[in-house]
Design brief:
Number of helices: 11
CATH superfamily of the largest domain: Alpha/Beta hydrolase fold, catalytic domain
Distance between the termini: 20 Å
Largest sheet: 8 strands, mixed
Structural class: alpha/beta
Strand order of the largest sheet: 1-2-4-3-5-6-9-10
Shape: elongated
Length: about 400
């Protein structure tokens, strides 16, 4: 994804810092606004993963730091739930003025509750997605419940969350107790998608039940079985982003999925996040990366794995087409592949300087009521798949700079 740094002023005139993540061609079908969790920031891994999944599906995402957090101005202790909602409204106004009005709002944990409130105040928002959200903002008290008496008596207290010190003032407590989320939900006539893990130990899953019960249809619930509260497992956060993309497409008014505006077949982009790479072909996109042992983030297949996947998928499709044409009883094709380099002459005593060749090993598993003759014929056909023939041909690659 392509990320653009932005700054905008909140209701108090303080500069808040954010980033807008865009699809590879920078032409999104719609914009989403993201509200991070209590004491979090825009760069938390789960936030970035969800945003990446959305941009792959042509949805731009604006993520930013709430007042006093991350790189945004202001003091955290002077902020509260209401100011978070105001920050979201200010972010929406910025998007509307400088890009496009956001149609989707997403909130994680307390940010989910703030997203519901903000959705009620932002006319352009058409859909709401919450992740591990409490059914009432006051639920956040459990994070500092041992300091509640000090806050009541002294007006504030400083405590530690995940190794960072935060100060909470009495005005924060008063503010969250003044909120009535069920009432807001009853007035909110917008589609809502509720994500929650049954194993969430920070915000119990019964909160999702309460949100779902209070909301009007259309409403949906997705169980994130096995996930923790912060979605630290990469697969969980990517899954959330993919589901939001598909779900929002049902409700958000936008054009049909567009094809990438290029005069070539495929476009590939890598930014500064080594080595996660986006690939787009027509309206389809995938991620390619290197394993962690090579310095990557393991966010997708490696380039050579993608090459093997191309050969394997072409093989399987070719065999499926051939069997269908012959009306053979072929139920399933599995292709197992590997790639390595070996000496041009297969000998244990080869000279070290002797050139090596690339070797692909392809093992095909066929399931179905097939005769031995049919199996052998399919094996022959596998060697005729287009990608196989391309790899065996003499290949020329022309490389030039593009203006």
């Amino acid at each position: 994804m392509y990320s653009k740094k932005v700054q905008f002023k909140n209701k108090q005139g303080q500069l808040l810092t954010g980033e807008i993540d865009l699809p590879i061609d920078k032409k999104p079908l719609s914009y989403a606004l993201f509200a991070h969790f209590f004491t979090g920031n825009k760069n938390f891994t789960a936030v970035r993963n969800i945003s990446r999944a959305l941009t792959q599906n042509n949805i731009a995402v604006m993520r930013f730091d709430f007042t006093g957090l991350g790189k945004s101005e202001g003091e955290f202790e002077d902020s509260n739930f209401t100011s978070n909602v105001d920050d979201l409204i200010s972010a929406a106004n910025f998007l509307t003025k400088n890009h496009h009005a956001p149609k989707i709002i997403i909130g994680h944990s307390l940010g989910g509750a703030a997203a519901i409130y903000a959705a009620n105040a932002i006319d352009s928002i058409e859909t709401v997605a919450t992740i591990a959200a409490p059914s009432n903002p006051s639920h956040v008290e459990h994070l500092f419940e041992e300091y509640l008496e000090d806050i009541e008596l002294d007006g504030e207290a400083t405590f530690d969350i995940a190794g960072r010190k935060f100060t909470i003032k009495k005005q924060f407590l008063d503010d969250i107790h003044d909120q009535d989320l069920p009432k807001i939900l009853k007035n909110l006539r917008k589609p809502i998608l509720v994500f929650h893990s049954p194993q969430d130990k920070v915000v119990e899953v019964k909160n999702a039940r309460d949100i779902y019960s209070a909301a009007h249809h259309p409403k949906s619930f997705i169980s994130l079985d096995g996930a923790n509260h912060l979605l630290t497992n990469k697969q969980d956060s990517f899954y959330v982003g993919q589901v939001i993309s598909s779900w929002a497409n049902r409700y958000v008014n936008s054009d049909e999925p567009k094809e990438l505006s290029t005069d070539k077949s495929v476009v590939v982009r890598v930014g500064r996040e080594k080595y996660t790479t986006e690939i787009v072909a027509r309206s389809h996109s995938i991620l390619v990366d290197e394993p962690k042992k090579y310095g990557g983030k393991d966010a997708g297949m490696s380039p050579y794995e993608l090459l093997l996947a191309s050969l394997g998928s072409c093989t399987a499709i070719t065999l499926r087409m051939y069997a269908d044409k012959k009306e053979w009883n072929l139920r399933e094709v599995k292709v197992h592949l590997e790639h390595f380099k070996q000496h041009a002459k297969d000998s244990d005593c080869c000279d070290k300087d002797e050139p090596k060749i690339d070797k692909f090993v392809r093992e095909i598993n066929l399931k179905g009521n097939l005769t031995e003759e049919q199996k052998q014929r399919l094996l022959q056909i596998a060697n005729r798949c287009p990608v196989h023939r391309t790899l065996e041909n003499k290949i020329e690659i022309e490389t030039k700079l593009r203006v």
